[in-house]
Amino acid sequence: MFKFVNSFAIKKIMLVFIAVTFYNCANKNDDAPKKIAVVISTLNNPWFIVLGESAAQRARELGYEATIFDSQNNTSKEAEHFENLIAAGYSAVLFNPTDSEGSVSNVKRAKQAGVPTFCMDREVNSLDAATSQIISDSFSGCVELGEYFVRQLNKKGKYVELLGLVGDNNTWNRSKGFHSVVDHFPDLKMVAQQSADFDRSKAMEVLESVMQSNPDIDAVFCGNDAMAMGAYQALVASGKADKVMVFGFDGSDDVMSAIKNKKIKATVMQSPKRMAQTAAELADEYIKGKRDFSVKTPLQVEVVTQENVNDFGVIDSEN
Q: What would you measure as the largest C-alpha separation in the chain, in angstroms?
């Protein structure tokens, strides 16, 4: 009888111990901060570094663990990141896609796993994959830039357009906005339109090649500021920097400084910090229970020129 009671008591103590341990572990997990993934198309570009770091910083300010993943402009690597973050139990993804079409499947995979995705700067070609897409109004910004471009060239001249990644909607939104204005002026001739993948070095190489057969161009319209700086380098190397106008898009620090120093003609300023912070804040709202989000969250942009650059408090980094 004693052995039976003793054995029963031991079993009861063991069950209580297991229950308490499980309860403590559960509470410990509940107390741990949730995790937010920041997946960026490439960190080989200062603008995207700001986007990624701003998103992670804002997520941490809101009480989350945040990890930045670099896709290196590779959709396969991006897919690996999504597989890993889903398996690791991340609560949301702040996402800068590598490709508007190729990235859709990654976003849908996260959605099926119950992980919301908030796109930053770049869109995916789906209206039901991402929870929301936080983007700059690239089309309208380039309409305004196109109007300034026409005025600066006095409605005539030869120009080159350097496109970004052909699989990125921003590339075409910017190009379409620009051409919606410029194409109405028949004396403005586009002598070349080539992709430089939003890359500074490639833009320099592409423009150098274009100028071999078109040495008398008057302007270069670039789909982002990295390409604008590459174009400017090509013009410096050819001795034409003071004769050819360069126009960009982004509002990066180096181009803002170049505008102040009369090297670049104009850019369209968008704010990677504001996009990133907005994405983190929307993710926070989702995690806390909100489910009603706009499919797209557009943010306004501003044209920065040599005439108004001082209004933006630019620090001259070249002096």
A: 108
Tell me: the pLDDT tens digits for 162-194? 999 998 999 999 999 999 999 999 999 999 999
The answer to whether the pTM exceeds 0.85 is no
Axis crossing angle, helix 46-61 with helix 225-237, rounded to the nearest 10: 150
For residue 93, what are the β-bridge partners? 37, 117
Distance between CA 16 and CA 205 in Å, rounded? 72
DSSP 3-state assignment of 65? strand
Question: Rg of the chain over CA atoms, in angstroms?
Answer: 25
DSSP for 229-273, please give it: HHHHHHHHHTT-TTTSEEE-SB--HHHHHHHHTTSS-EEEE--HH
Q: Which amino acid is at 162?
A: L
Reply yes or no on whether the pLDDT at 21 is more than 50: no
Tell me the pLDDT tens digit for each residue of 200-235.
999 999 999 999 999 999 999 999 999 999 999 999
Cβ distance 189 to 160 under 8 Å? no
* Nearest of 176, 228, 172 to residue 46 by alpha carbon: 228
Our separate counts of H helices and E strands in the chain read 10, 12
What tokens appear for 55 in the block? 């998103």
Question: Which two tokens mark 37?
Answer: 């993934």
